[in-house]
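Problem 12. The chain below contains 359 residues. Write out its predicted structure in token notation.
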Amino acid sequence: MEQLVEHQYAYLDRLPGDEFELTPKLRAEAEAVKTKRQLVRFAERALTLLADHHTIIGAALSDSWAVFPSFGDLWIERRGKDYVVEQVREDTPASRRGIRAGDHLLAIGGVPIQNVVDDFWDDLGVLYGPRDEGFTARILAAGRRDRPRALTVKSGSDEPRQLELSNLYSVENIEQPPLSVSDEGESRVITFNNSLGREDTIAAFDTAMAEASRDQPIIIDLTDTPGGGNTVVARGIMGWLVQQPTPYQIHSLPKEMRCTGIPRQWIEQVLPREGKYHSGSLTVRIGRWTGSMCEGMAIGLDAIGAAVEGSRMAGLLGAVYDERLPNSGLIVKLPVERLYAFDGTPREEFEPASPAAPH
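Solution.
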């Protein structure tokens, strides 16, 4: 595990001493592993040391922590001594129970939030040094997959409320079309239903664009796309909006520099699609539940002149490769490439020029 991360992980500079090292407690757990279940649990715990929402084990247990942001509904940041809800995902258990941006998370399971955060890291053997407390609070608030969440929240001067919320794994998953189309004034709004990984999304987008009137303003809504997707779908969408090969994202591969001493970096382009072009103005809506490939599409559309509005995105790091542990075959999904906007801004640091407009 340590060798894999040291060799492949693109963001070692985020770690103390620019290296990945198990705590003594986790090293003892590794040596005690005898079953697949124990291996999965150890791997989950070990990779938590990266404090990286984009690092995932390719297997899970019934009581594993929820994958965030895909199965989370509260974006929480630490502000001073407080844990503040920055955004709430729409149409989720949290939003339906009235949790709003600006609320404070006071406790989980009746235990003060700071105590829960400290216990989380202590349990991994991290007793001193930096701890990503916003990352931790978001995972804890999303909860474990096999049980509801007990959260205590406070809105302004109101009395604290103790809420029991379903986790997002237990919420009924109603099948949605890949995208929804509506009109907003003179604009056509195309809302992606967390669908940039679906094979039918390009065809649905082609239909929506073909039905738009000539030069009609287009709004692409990516505010509920935490699951990311793949570059084929993203390029298929962006291909409607360019007339010549156009750069949209920069990639670099730190592992090659580590192995050879020679840096590697390249520019990915989006190409026009024959017979498909729309010349109307373009607005892109983003937020904390815009994740991974959807973040790449947002910075690409920004590069070709779209007006991007909203907030910071999920900030998921890099492009993920499936890495297989050699003896067990367990898959570790690890960010191996670093990604940048065409102006050199790291993708995870991109901020829109405009806040979200009322709509």
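Discussion. The longest strand covers residues 331-340. Students who got a different answer should revisit the alignment rule from Section 12.3.
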